[in-house]
Design brief:
Shape: globular
Keywords: RNA-binding
Organism: Holdemanella porci
InterPro entries: Nucleotide-bd_a/b_plait_sf, RqcP2_RBD, S4_RNA-bd, S4_RNA-bd_sf
Largest sheet: 6 strands, antiparallel
CATH class of the largest domain: Alpha Beta
Number of strands: 15
Number of helices: 6
Protein name: RNA-binding S4 domain-containing protein
CATH topology of the largest domain: Structural Genomics Hypothetical 15.5 Kd Protein In mrcA-pckA Intergenic Region, Chain A
Strand content: 25-35%
GO molecular function, one term: RNA binding
CATH superfamily of the largest domain: RNA-binding S4 domain
Distance between the termini: 30 Å
């Protein structure tokens, strides 16, 4: 089983059910928002004769709805974009502030796509069924008053990741987490065993070896994607290339 599959057994079972329903009923089916790893898993599962489309609201979206589309069907996605502006004079809002507001309002992460903080513009991509609830209830983020409205004309220009390089003794998770978190390997192991580390959006409490394109999320540190081993030093240490999401 590939590293993308580990921990996704329930998701795989659910998607098998969705595929069977679509094959039997031939009607449009839209999932909740899926992570990048879930999208990859689903793509590998779907037969070639089924039309599967992903939509996250904009080209570079990470979280996307999967849409099973019957032949000739038009108007497939129920992803909507909500937009608000705020005054950053006293407080600069972050992705965490925006996500925290939604979670504290009792909204499930599965109905929320990407969250974009672009200077003083806030964008929420969400399922249509939850949009009015967000508009009515998410009116205060930290100390900032906001008013979200559905937005049809938007341009997402923010580059939300940067390239970084780290040096590790191996591709073992504890070694990588130690370098990304700027801590010792023993502290990195504690983070892993405490469930503070996710690989491909799954909490892992055991050590493993990273593969190219794996996502690593570390609580209070950030989210990263492992791209490749760039080189090996004379002392045998690995120079690793990561994308860091900011």
């Amino acid at each position: 089983m590939s590293s993308f599959m580990v921990g996704h057994e329930v998701f795989i079972s659910q998607m098998k059910d969705q595929i069977r329903i679509f094959q039997k009923q031939n009607r449009p089916i839209m999932t909740c928002f899926l992570s990048i790893s879930e999208q990859s898993i689903l793509q590998s599962m779907v037969p070639k004769n089924i039309c599967l489309v992903f939509d996250g609201g904009y080209d570079q979206a990470q979280r996307k709805i999967a849409c099973f589309i019957p032949e000739g069907y038009v108007g497939f996605s129920d992803c909507v974009c909500l937009h608000a502006t705020y005054n950053s004079k006293f407080k600069t809002l972050t992705h965490s502030d925006l996500l925290g507001c939604l979670m504290h309002s009792g909204i499930e992460r599965s109905v929320i796509g990407d969250l974009i903080v672009q200077k003083e513009d806030l964008y929420i991509f969400c399922k249509e069924k939850i949009s009015k609830y967000i508009i009515d209830n998410c009116t205060q983020i930290s100390k900032c008053t906001v008013h979200f409205e559905e937005c049809l004309d938007y341009i997402i220009t923010e580059n939300n990741k940067k390239e970084i390089h780290i040096m590790c003794s191996s591709l073992r998770l504890d070694s990588v987490v130690a370098q990304l978190s700027h801590c010792s390997r023993s502290e990195a192991l504690k983070k892993i065993h405490a469930g503070f580390v996710k690989v491909n959006d799954v909490v892992l409490e055991q050590n493993l070896q990273l593969c190219n394109n794996d996502f690593v999320s570390i609580r209070k540190t950030g989210r990263f994607q492992f791209k490749e081993v760039v080189s090996t030093t004379k002392k045998g240490r690995l120079v690793l290339n990561f994308d860091q999401y900011i």
